[in-house]
């Protein structure tokens, strides 16, 4: 193995994903209440972010995989493009996995909360998915494996 590259397996797992958001409260409600992610509180908040969380500049959610979703409050964030199909330039989407038997309920929750749906539900050999937007226009997906 060359000293100019990491060995396979040295990168252990996905750690966190950070998004800039224009309205922290709206995004907290969306990710915490609509999508049901666990918001980190107290000692769960990483030491490096405690002061930013206390100042209301960041909030963190634990994804089901254990990875972290950081939301950074950026009040001067340019508004999302009026056409929600205009993708962010350096990211495509963030996908959440769900059990096949819970997929239809997830779709119903999105619709009940008037979440803007990009497309779907779609069925593929790899499973089903629905693509939708968070309050800042970032594309998300909820997907499931095919039923066994």
Plain-language structure description:
The structure is a single chain. With 148 residues, the protein is of the alpha/beta class. The chain folds into two domains: 16-73, Roll (2,3-Dihydroxybiphenyl 1,2-Dioxygenase, domain 1); 94-144, 2,3-Dihydroxybiphenyl 1,2-Dioxygenase, domain 1. Helices cover 18% and strands 30% of the residues. The chain is built from three helices and eight strands. It has helices at 24-34, 50-54, 103-112, and strands at residues 16-21, 38-39, 58-62, 68-73, 94-97, 117-124, 127-133, 139-144. The strands form two sheets. A four-stranded mixed β-sheet has the order 1-4-3-2. The protein has a four-stranded mixed β-sheet with strand order 5-8-7-6, with helices on one face. A hairpin with a 5-residue loop joins strand 3 and strand 4 (68-73). The protein is globular, with a radius of gyration of 17 Å. The N and C termini lie far apart (40 Å). The mean pLDDT is 86.
Topology record:
Blueprint: E1 16-21, H1 24-34, E2 38-39, H2 50-54, E3 58-62, E4 68-73, E5 94-97, H3 103-112, E6 117-124, E7 127-133, E8 139-144
Parallel strand pairs: 1-4, 5-8
Antiparallel strand pairs: 2-3, 3-4, 6-7, 7-8
